[in-house]
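Hi all, long-time lurker, first post. I run a small reading group and we've been trying to get comfortable going from sequence to structure in the token notation. Rather than ask abstract questions, I figured I'd post a concrete chain and ask someone more experienced to write out its structure so we can walk through it together at our next meeting. Sequence below, copied exactly:
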Amino acid sequence: MMRRLSHEDLPPGRWCIGVSGGADSVALLRLLHARGDLQLHVAHLDHQLRGDDSTGDARFVAALCTSMGIPATIALRSDIESALPDPPANPSARYRAARLELFRRVVREHHLGGIALAHHADDQAETILQRLIRGSSIEGLCGMRPCTTIGDLPVYRPLLSIRRQTLRDYLTGIRQPWREDASNASRHYLRNRLRQLLAGRPELIDGLLRVARAAQSVRQWVSDVTPALATATADMPIAQLTALPEPISRELARRWLIGVGAAEASLDGRSIGRLLEMATDAASPGRQDFPGGIRIARRSGRLRRVQLAGI
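-- Answer (accepted) --
Happy to help. Here is the structure in token form:
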């Protein structure tokens, strides 16, 4: 049975909703529209990758929003990408950057509180499995957060505790159609292959979600016991990092990098590992660049942010 989304899932206010036309995002829109304390604005990016199907998705979302009396911004990927200052070379990363840019524009132009996305429990399980395969740290195994910030964009995921089939059953029960993306069946992408694997072994999903909850508990403990930085200075004594157990030193390193200007959303386990290697291995490069366009140097027993040439 589908539960109502509460204030804990998404606070009252004005919100952008990312709607692709698929079952998950249509269910999110319907569930949030049922609340009386939200003002919604839909954002849809036509990725222009599936010909008439992509155009059909955009038309479906526009018609749905019109029927529900919800304003919508429908944009073409080519228009958004052309404005990106440094688009990623990887196609998937570039499409994600375009979506985030559209969301930022809509939130800014319409004075909204942030974006709500339709990631659900099955998506979370797929994410955990993908990160396990890639050897992720505890931080990565926590999975997606219900509420986070990407750059300056607040992001909520109200459906993370709800299974995919529950959302589809809900839409079927209210006779609300949705669009199916045929590319989700392609085995070209790792996430699609993992989705198909989990569809055949649904018992693995609960196990993966337990891994995420356990990792979240460990992350909270590490956060609680990690010593606070004395000041947000550009210097970090190496001895302060190396004297701590690795999970705690990793958290302290992460906080310090953020404090000196690193991009929090782009900091992954590899970036933190490189900083700790700088602290513990004198043979490692003494100057390295980190997400957010910052450069860290090792000098006289300290790590220090240094100015990039030309800045």
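A couple of things your group might point at:
The longest helix spans residues 203-225.
The chain has two domains: 13-207, 235-306.
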